[in-house]
Design goal:
The protein is α/β, with parallel strands linked by helices. The chain has one domain: 3-Layer(aba) Sandwich (Rossmann fold), CATH 3.40.50.620. It is 49% helix and 11% strand. The protein has a six-stranded mixed β-sheet, sandwiched between helices. β5 and β6 form a beta hairpin. α1 packs across α7 and α2 packs across α7. It is globular and about 50 Å long. The termini are far apart.
């Protein structure tokens, strides 16, 4: 598939998500979380295209949270963005040292890191006066999270396309909710985004439950091509009458 055709298809899905969940409003200043992975590059590039076409005015502020993992190349991300008209703000942290010092046995390294990074990015958004925080979670992330919660925590819960934080200071948006990971991977390759490894010391060995769920989804969607589209639709098509909802006594 030609690049322009693929880009058009993805943009249509991002536009639909923005419309369905009112993700972007006039005057928004959006912090775009840039990790250097395929999802964050694609999200920034697509939002920048829509910014030029949208009937509402909004601005994008790319921000990178540097966890201080050895070998992490923020300079590659910064140079690519500068070459494409963006100024990347890098927030240096001691997250790596904090994890190594305080993580408890049998605690997920990824989950602990994610919580620390979330706190940093929430504070940075307030400091910069941003009205929204854009994260690059895609359709597969939503489905995997839903299954993980059902399989291992006994909850019917996924992620929200638009989430107001508990403290009321931030609003998180996920514009790639309708975009499958395979499409992003293909798009990132065709765009030649300079993907940067997170350099996390447990990368590839942590979060085996999510990897197993991803493998299961890959196998099932190979047999049933419409499976992922059906599953993402189900997250906004909940029939509580047919669930085990207890009545108040």
């Amino acid at each position: 598939m030609p690049l322009k055709k693929l880009e058009k298809q993805i943009l249509k899905k991002v536009g639909k998500a923005i419309f369905d969940f009112n993700l972007i409003e006039d005057g928004d200043k959006i912090l775009v979380a840039m990790s250097g992975g395929k999802d964050s590059y694609a999200m920034l590039h697509l939002l920048n295209i829509l910014k030029k076409r949208a009937p509402v005015k909004f601005t994008l502020v790319p921000v990178n949270i540097d966890s201080n993992f050895t070998g992490y190349r923020t300079d590659i991300i910064s140079k690519y963005l500068a070459d494409n008209g963006h100024n990347l703000e890098i927030v240096k942290t001691n997250i790596y040292e904090t994890i190594e010092k305080h993580i408890e046995p049998n605690t997920s390294y990824c989950s602990f890191c994610s919580r620390l990074r979330r706190g940093v990015i929430y504070n940075k958004a307030v400091e910069l006066g941003c009205t929204k925080i854009a994260l690059g979670h895609h359709l597969d992330d939503f489905i995997e999270t839903s299954l993980l919660n059902q399989f291992f925590t006994g909850e019917i819960k996924a992620m929200s396309a638009k989430l107001h934080s508990d403290d009321g200071r931030n609003t998180v948006i996920r514009p790639l909710v309708y975009v499958e990971e395979a499409a992003i991977m293909k798009y990132a390759g065709m765009m030649a985004f300079p993907i940067v490894c997170c350099c996390c010391p447990v990368c590839g060995s942590d979060n085996m439950m999510r990897k197993n769920v991803k493998k299961l989804l890959t196998e099932l969607s190979g047999k049933y091509p419409g499976l992922k589209r059906s599953m993402i639709k189900s997250l906004s098509n909940v029939k509580t009458r047919h669930l085990l909802v207890k009545e108040n006594k």
